Automatic annotation (TrEMBL):
InterPro entries for this protein: AMP-binding_CS (IPR020845), AMP-dep_synth/lig_dom (IPR000873), ANL_N_sf (IPR042099)
CC per GO annotation: endoplasmic reticulum membrane; plasma membrane
Catalytic reactions of this protein: tetracosanoate + ATP + CoA = tetracosanoyl-CoA + AMP + diphosphate; a very long-chain fatty acid + ATP + CoA = a very long-chain fatty acyl-CoA + AMP + diphosphate
Ligase recorded as keyword: yes
Molecular function terms, GO-annotated: long-chain fatty acid transmembrane transporter activity; long-chain fatty acid-CoA ligase activity
GO biological process: bile acid metabolic process; long-chain fatty acid import into cell
Name assigned to this protein: Long-chain-fatty-acid--CoA ligase
Taxonomic lineage from the root: Eukaryota, Metazoa, Chordata, Craniata, Vertebrata
UniProt family annotation: Belongs to the ATP-dependent AMP-binding enzyme family.
Pfam families: AMP-binding (PF00501)
Domain AMP-dependent synthetase/ligase intervals: 32-219
Assigned keywords, A-Z: Ligase, Lipid metabolism
Amino acid sequence: ELREAVEEVLPDLERDGVRVFYLSSASPTPGVEALLPAIEVAPDEPLPAQHRAGVTASSKAMYIYTSGTTGLPKAAVITELKLMMVASLGRMCGLRPDDVVYTTLPLYHSAGLLVGVGGGGVTVPVPCPPGATCVLRTKFSASQFWADCRRYNVSVIQYVGELMRYLCNTPKRADDREHGVRMALGNGMRAEVWKEFLQRFGPVAVWEFYGATEGNAGFINYTG
């Protein structure tokens, strides 16, 4: 989906020595590598310690481009410490290693990447066995949402903004409560939607939080 945007800035990235990957089995763009073949042949053993030599809590882990909550759009610096703090949100809300987290949110957004995928990796203390399983969907589909939850034995769902209202606006079905979802983690759900969601889809524990990618504080409605 971002091919044209990538190709537009690719010469600048190549000049700066930046390697670019598509998360696919093949690349249609000269100069951009395909990541899946490398992942498939990668060993299962932990990375050698020297790869982490010099990494501290204040080291830059990644940049996430924000829409401008605190001003103009910008690339926000995510340090190793902030990555771990945001990723630990799931564990604070009760995420378990045996959970299956369903994420339909884009992975260029903090919620999908740090809370969803990242949260699945820090559900138990280090050293640890594998964390929770994360089920990814390319795009959100209200009509297929609960079918996916049943198909993949989902126990935790993520939401942002009006996603829950879209689910409540779908035609009612006899199997609306036939799922294994026990927890919803996200932000931006209106009070009336919250009530309607629980009445229709069952006693799902809703953990509403607030945070900004470039912010320095966050809130969790831990009382429910």
